[in-house]
Design a protein that fits this description.
Blueprint (H helix, E strand, L loop, with lengths): L1 H7 L4 E5 L12 E2 L1 H9 L3 H4 L5 E3 L1 E6 L2 E7 L10 E3 L2 H12 L5 E5 L2 E8 L2 E9 L2 E6 L3 E3 L6 H6 L3 E3 L4 E9 L9 E5 L2 E7 L3 E9 L3 H6 L2 H11 L17 E3 L4 E3 L3 E2 L2 E3 L5 E2 L7 H22 L4 H35 L8 H8 L5 H8 L18
Helix pairs in contact: 1-4, 8-9
Length: about 400
């Protein structure tokens, strides 16, 4: 996204992707109203929505036998009153194809940034690994967007503030059949939480477990794991045998952390490289997009005329740090006060008071929808001259 925005403004960019394609399953695949609004501002929304996707307009869950609507997106600002579920590779392929229409946009696949190039106390590029060996790529600015296990932030020695999470999540895929519920849904029972995300032809599923509990679950055997799912979500009981082995189950080790400083001269970290988010609310991708928009708005002029000053990079952190801290605070509250208690429960689950309030007062459902769908301090694309597109 940042590469697209900068190239659109006439800045030469090189994006490095270590894999041969974007096809990685079990990534976060939610595109929230805030991101859809950015796409609309760029004139890309109509094309994006032609790609097969599902649209979630309400979020609901079953808690100890009581069904509650948690969020209603019909009142969020912007054109799209829904969360779109779309494979992330489709979204990235679309954005990459649109970016290649700008002469300054270069996407290099199978090229992995493995180290930083430093000169006179500043970052001046990266060392990249390719099929042909290592090479040096020089740049006015390096942006680390290489995820929660970021190589570049480690090489920079930037300090990570560990916030922690009491949960992990197991991701899997189960088929969808005629007559199945056509919405994303969460089920919480004593000792377990199971989430189904409607992906049109199948369900992307998350089984939430205690931190570090995967080995214990595996020790109990795959048959017992299938039975747990069937007991929690009875309408899936006839297809749990689709999980033929533990290779069909992917472990997401949940981390919540953020950098104390997001930058140093010549280097800026954004997205999970700057702040690893919990999967609660599925907001990680959308915060990363917001980081990209804020960075483009702040840095385009300085990149066009020279090298961004450290103060320019620090300004991006100042702009995005508050939304990050607030969002992580909400996630940690939900993890500690609700999810962890459900996982530790051995008796009946009582409906927490926030959920009782949502059940009694429908208008309150706009609040979670606003937090999840739009977030804190949403970003908008700055208006600027755009060079002609390549045909």
């Amino acid at each position: 996204m940042l590469g697209y925005l900068l190239a659109r403004a006439g800045v030469d960019v090189v994006i490095l992707e270590k894999h041969a394609d974007f096809f990685r399953d079990f990534r976060g695949d939610t595109i929230h109203p805030s991101t859809l609004e950015v796409m609309d501002e760029l004139g890309l929304l109509d094309g994006l929505l032609k790609i097969p996707h599902s649209e979630i307009r309400t979020l609901s869950g079953n808690f100890g036998g009581t069904t509650v609507t948690i969020g209603d997106f019909s009142h969020v600002p912007g054109r799209c009153k829904f969360v779109a579920f779309m494979p992330q590779w489709d979204f990235l392929n679309y954005l990459a194809a649109e970016g290649k229409r700008f002469p300054g946009f270069t996407l290099r696949m199978e090229t992995e940034a493995v180290d930083l190039l430093r000169e006179n106390g500043a970052v001046r590029g990266v060392v990249a690994r390719t099929h042909d060996g290592q090479e040096t790529i020089r740049a006015k600015l390096v942006v680390a967007a290489d995820g929660r296990h970021s190589t570049l932030r480690e090489k920079a020695g930037l300090r990570v503030v560990e916030i922690g999470a009491p949960i992990d999540a197991l991701w899997m895929r189960l088929s969808k059949k005629a007559g199945d519920p056509s919405q994303s849904f969460g089920t919480a029972v004593p000792g377990g939480i199971f989430v189904t995300i409607d992906r049109l032809t199948y369900y992307q599923c998350a089984f939430v477990i205690r931190k570090g509990g995967y080995a214990e679950l595996q020790a109990g055997g795959l048959a017992a794991f299938r039975q747990k799912i069937a007991a929690m979500v009875p309408h899936l009981a006839d297809r749990v045998d689709e999980l033929r082995g533990w290779d069909d189950v992917r472990l997401l080790e949940v981390r919540v952390d953020r950098l104390e400083r997001w930058s140093m001269p010549g280097l800026l970290c954004i997205g999970d490289a700057a702040h690893a988010m919990s999967p609660v609310g599925g907001v990680g991708i959308n915060l990363a997009v917001q980081d990209a928009v804020a960075a483009a708005n702040r840095l385009t002029a300085s990149l066009a005329s020279g090298t961004p000053k450290p103060s320019d990079l620090e300004a991006v952190q100042r702009r995005r740090e508050f939304p990050t801290k607030v969002t992580q605070g909400i996630q940690v509250f939900i993890q500690d006060r609700f999810l962890n208690r459900v996982l530790q429960a051995r008796g009946p689950i009582s409906l927490p008071w926030p959920l009782r309030a949502l059940a009694l007062v429908p208008a309150l459902r706009r609040i979670p929808a606003r937090i999840i769908g739009v977030g804190v301090r949403p970003e908008h694309v700055a208006k600027q001259a755009v060079p002609p597109l390549q045909v």
